[in-house]
């Protein structure tokens, strides 16, 4: 009876024993669960020892690293901007690819290409006596020390000088490029040419000149006396037929060897452009010469016929521009990094040699018709032409002439047009006056002696 009573007291929810039992159960739930202790076997003991050794080694590595290393070095890897400065001297290696068409420098072009073609720039340092007398006569001075600007009294020349000086100061102040300087000089030459209307012609075009006029490099086995000349009178009018293999038919068609195509008619090939002695075809910024209408109708027809046959290329352009026998060219460069004075002088040198080649072809036609070369030799020694090379306000006047079997380009005088321009304008007016006068008269006299085409 007592046992049953005690059991009922223990099972009663409200009894003290049940409350104590529940409290102990909740307290066990709050405690973290722990895995049962593994049995003390040999394998368990080894795993516990390895775990403790691993923890001690990691703790030792962290302590030694924080003591020996810089915290900034442990933060993040260096970026390209924060990389150590000792790598700045190292440059990445780039694979060098060979260039088949490496551009020749202006200095090499002058000392190698122009030299092989017999064209020399600023080589003599003086003018031969014949050329010196000719140039001083053209410029209307007795000595190179004459101050011609003070003796200028022509109001039109004074107006041109004042206007061009104003343009030069504006272009220099604005650091103008090549186009502005070229336009100002072209306007000056057009204004001076209009002093003799219908006699002179000035062009500022991008038309290239005829490639047959430019000088070429002389082969090693060719002497000066055996120099080739452009002679197109022997050009064949009919082409033979090569459909038959009969030697007798071929021999009957040709009286001599098979003629080759003239160089001026052959297209420019890639091998010619890759030639280390290649001479660029002239394309001056400004060209001044005689107007086609300045000649008589008979001479006009004669010039057109010679131009078509290629015997006298009086118009140097590949396309007809209505200009004959140029005697003044301009190569203009502005105040820019790309403006190279040496390159401009090289271009003017080739243009000058081409202008002299036109006069030489005229002399060849006269000498071929008369059967004598004495007049040709005498005239070739006194032929001259001019060029102006500019680099911003710096203007240089050059003269081109033949001397001892080569073409020379020598400097006459230089000016800075922002301060001194009157002498330049005076010289230009005298050159144009010579061109429409003595220069033209000499050409007409030779044309009357030249054979008809």
TrEMBL record:
Residues 24-34 have a biased composition (Polar residues). InterPro entries: DUF7924. Residues 274-439 form the DUF7924 domain. This is DUF7924 domain-containing protein. It comes from the Eukaryota. Residues 1-43, 70-109 are annotated as: Disordered. Pfam families: DUF7924 (PF25545).
